[in-house]
Design a protein that fits this description.
- By secondary structure, the protein is of the alpha+beta class.
- The protein is 15% helix and 31% strand.
- It contains two helices and eleven strands.
- Helix 1 crosses helix 2.
- It holds the Pfam family Ribonuc_L-PSP.
Length: 175
């Protein structure tokens, strides 16, 4: 993955939406725009298919996502869209792990749809269980929501989820 370091100077657009960038002597960066891949020779001009960030501003635009069903709270927003991604806050539920997982994922589905995304576009889930003994029940419900090519997932025990919550799930998805 090529990470943008900061607002870059202009680069030269090439045919096919590619951009020519020059690797600077003694640097692993292309004009401070993206990290150069291993083995890149200083002074070499390479092309790489990426869309450069806006040259007019260094700040990324953020869109806060909420609705009547999923209102913003003083401490967080249900979802935030930035640069082709949506970051969804954790959805929580009480009760047995299987039904709580179903509720969390159904709520995430609705928040993602508000954001212009979907469960099929999720690239990462983080699952928090009040008790790891519930892993198999959570996993059974979780699998029912997965697309053919599932995203990555982390699942950990969270010692004290608030208010008797048994499952919390958050995700990151493409928009």
């Amino acid at each position: 993955m090529h990470a943008v370091q900061h607002a870059p100077p202009p680069c030269e657009e090439q045919p096919g939406g590619r951009y020519a960038v020059e690797v600077l002597e003694g640097s692993t960066e292309w004009r401070s725009q993206v990290r150069a891949p291993p083995g890149t020779i200083p002074g070499q001009v390479s092309t790489f298919g990426f869309t450069p960030p806006s040259h007019s501003t260094a700040a990324m635009s953020r869109q806060l996502i909420s609705s009547e069903k999923f209102p913003p709270k003083p401490h967080n927003c249900p979802a935030v869209k930035v640069a082709g991604l949506v970051f969804c806050a954790g959805q929580t539920s009480k009760g047995d792990a299987k039904s709580a997982t179903t509720t969390c994922l159904q709520n995430l589905k609705e928040v993602l749809e508000l954001s212009g995304s979907s469960l099929e576009q999720v690239v990462k889930y983080n699952v928090y269980l009040a008790d790891m003994k519930d892993f198999d029940a959570m996993n059974e419900a979780y699998i029912a929501f997965l697309p053919k090519n599932p995203p990555s997932r982390t699942c950990i025990a969270a010692a004290a989820l608030p208010g008797g919550v048994t499952v919390e799930i958050e995700c990151i998805a493409q928009v």
